[in-house]
Amino acid sequence: MQWRKKLPILITLAAGIFVVVSRFVKIEPLPTLSGTLDEWFLVSAAFAFVIGMANLTRLHLLKVRSRGKDWPYSLVLLVCLYGYLTLGLTVSVQGPAYEWVYRNILGALQGAMFSLLAFFTASAAYRAFRIRSAEATVLMITAAVVMVGNIPLGESIAGGNIPGLAQWILDVPNTAGARGILLGAAVGALATSVRILLGLERAHLGGPGA
Amino acid sequence: MFLEEAGAQFLFMLIFVAVVYFFIQRSSAGTHVPEIRKVAGLEYIDTAIGRATEMGRPVHFTPGLFGVDAPETLASFAILGHVARESARYDARLIVSNFELPVLGINQEIVRQAYLEAGRPERFNPLDVRYMSSDQFGYAAGVAGLLHRENVGANIMVGAFAAEAMVLAESGYQAGALQVGGTTFIQSLPWFIVAADHTLIGEEIYAAGAYLSRDPVLTGTIAAQDLAKIGIIGLVILGTFLNTLGLTWLETVLSW
Amino acid sequence: MNILERIDRRILYLVLLLAVAYPLLRPFGLSVKPGPDSKQVFRVIDELPRGSVVMVSFDYDPAAAPELDPMAVALVRLLFSKDLRIITFSQPGWELGAGQADRILRQVAVEKGKEYGTDWVNLGWRAGQSAVILPAMSEDLRRPMNGVDMYGQPLVNLKLMDQIRKLSDLQLIVGIWSGTPGFQEYISFVYEPLKIPLVGGTTAIGLPVAKPYMKAGQLAGILGGMRGAADIEVLADQPGRALTVMDAQSLGLLVILGFLVLGNIGYLVTRWRGGVKG
Question: pTM for the complete prediction?
Fold first, then answer.
């Protein structure tokens, strides 16, 4: 293997072992060095923002210039991106103008997207929850019980038994399933980390999957 | 000096690494390692890319919201590598939407490499591996729009997803794309299950690198992973049994 | 094809919108009976001695604010009315959470006559990784915050911070979590090594994920979404926004259930007519 390929793996291995050891061993300078490593990570991530902005700007400028499909949206994006950046740099992020945009535009837009979940969940549930098979029926009944059990009306339906049943579903079958997935995923994550530290999985270095 | 009550954690980690190493040695020496069972979701990725190509529609990939420090993102790299190679082979257009900037750089490299290997370096368009937004719902809005505008034929979503998974999966469905979702995030799995055609549940995404590459050494590590899981299941059963009898020594040992 | 099986999604969206909007304009005031998990959270807070210092972690941003703000307000009101003192913090990644904390604490502090610096302090937000920051805060609270609060004031000038040098000086951590980093980071890096009790709330979709940790005793109590907030408002006898929103949530969920039933009636009719096999 050439050094060009070996070096990133060696750096990964060294940094990985260092972070793992500093998690368990609390002798100076390990905790301080671990903090420094975190700061390096922050600085390199901050530089990456420049790359991201360049990527966005190039993509959308090209679209605006060539009057590609839906180009006015690209123009809106560029105006917002650079407008908000200028605002933050000129009037400071603590200033009222920045705050106003944050509360009345950013907050409202984010909240609106989050609320889309209710609509999308409704249409997906309407489509998927058909009593086609035993499993689909169980899925639908469980969803219905948990939904009814969670609302004040649920207490007045079926003599108050539904909230108890909903609680049981969340406490017992849900917890059991969630634990299984969590444990499996944690072991999987550990195995992936070991593979990366040993240089077996190199997809992140731009090489093939293995 | 040593983090309190973490001795058992440290020991478990060492044992695990030793088991993985043992299996790597075994498979390198050519000793038989168990095969990985068929994972329908991973098989379906190829079908989806094939169908999108037939329809002349692009393939879309999202690695989710997290950065290179999340194991889910690391797992997504291996899957993107495969998706990119398949797309390059079929000469399909591949669009990758990124949330995290360091991930953007890595994904550009992965896709570039795949087109290069397929002998079509000129077909790689760096602007198709794009940065979308580092805001959860800004990202979701961007991807939802893209899925409709670009008339995406196959939508592969593997990585770390939270609530925005519903927006991505339902938009993909509405755009008529064939979809595969995969994550370890329990709160996002239901969205993928109802809106995508196939779902990779939990650790299946970590097995993808080995599964798709068919590399015996990588497959060996999956066997080690399963052995560790059997060990954990054994501990859970033993712990439940002992606790029921009122014996707490296992608990004491594990919190050492 | 049966019409009930293929209702246009735009009709569904419109009906759902009306069902949610109407009760917000004209609430019917359905009564809420707190569930066992919410009672548990209330009990943990209620049993703390007066004057104890609690950290409230605002780990959410404006996207989840419509769902989590009422919970944060209800919890901060409860903490202040029990004469507990509050330090707020937001984990790395939730830079907008510090702003949420600022707005909510200011509002409730005025209501309850609490003063900044003696009754509450906003540490703000710190960039980086929770895996590094939280263990560092366990050793020394000031260093990771560079010695200043959210507004740039030196922490040494704030009276409340005299007694609180590190995380283990706190009596309780209350989190309002909408994702990652969230309670899992507090469990791994604070609860497990220091055993400081941990309670809090998540969005409704985060609740199933938090359950296993609560059953394992790592979370002393957990609230789920708007319902959890409404429960706290009832238990603390301080009605607020969550209780009015419960009407909208009830009607919205009933509409979704109604559509599920309609879809299945349509499906059964088609099957009965022999339109669909299986």
Answer: 0.90
